[in-house]
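Methods — Computational structure assignment.
A single polypeptide chain was analysed. Its primary sequence is given first, followed by the predicted tertiary structure written as structure tokens.
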Amino acid sequence: MIYPTIPPIDIDAAKKAQTRHSNLTKPALSLGRLEEISIQLAGMKADPFPTVSRKAVIVMAADHGVAQEGISAFPAEVTKQMVLNFLQGGAAINVLARQAGAGVTIVDIGVASDFEPSLPGLLHRKVAHGTRNMAKGPAMTRSEAEKALTCGMDVLAQVAERDIDLIATGDMGIGNTTPSSAIVAVMTGLPVAKVTGRGTGLDDAGLAHKVKVIEQAIAVNKPDPSDALDVLSKVGGLEIAGLAGVMIAAAARRIPVVVDGFISTAAAMIAVGLVPDVRNYLFGSHQSVEIGHQAMHKHLGLTPLINLNLRLGEGTGAVLAFHLIEASARILREMATFAEAGVSDKEQ
């Protein structure tokens, strides 16, 4: 599979943004990470005065065969039910996206049941009716994984036609913390128990069972940690593949990606494993309560912007982070310099 070329970060634009920050009416570095974010944005977008007013979130939905092993507190039917809730505007991601002024795109990339073809607002991009049970064999073929990656790239291209400045990734899929834990365990080499959390609310016995199922899946499939596509196809998910494709295609267009929680960050690990330069276009939005999320951020070299003890997914944490990222860009563009405001700086 051939992936698009990722443009290098524009160092000149980033330096110009940094220089402007040093002349704004504030003590040097006094706005902390807001300054860092805007400088990153300038480099990503090749624009010393970046704007991120046009925002969108892409939510990929899919089911997982491993749910047959009883690794989730919720039944698999909830995936379809929540997709319908998204389309009706009643989910958390809809509320937060409305507040942020962001569009929401919902994609059926692998829900186990079918939707009405004419259902308003849904992108029908089904690669398969869910993955296979990874505890017994590969979740997907390499061909299916590549098809899902391509689907994600195509969806991003479609959304990007609206001149989007900033994209967030979201997910829906009962059981999807299980493949995400498997991905982080394989790609970091950490023990499964150290990166596996309670997902939708498992009790102690349920968590112990989930760990055993993931260990079994890794033992059965023997995914190669140096081959991200092998990891994805053997212990991944269709929505994870789709989100990885979104990230690759966004980076190729200089669109910064705000990565949501545990599942989206698993997708980021796959995307960076396939195309390492994608890393330069990612923002980690929040620190999930899922115990493996910190290891993911460390692996990717990302520092999350917020920590609100979130564990919902859907893109909720990423859309909340939109506000901080837009604030950083507005500070850079709209704040006056010492000269413009007639304010003496410390050297004067």
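Note: The radius of gyration is 20 Å.
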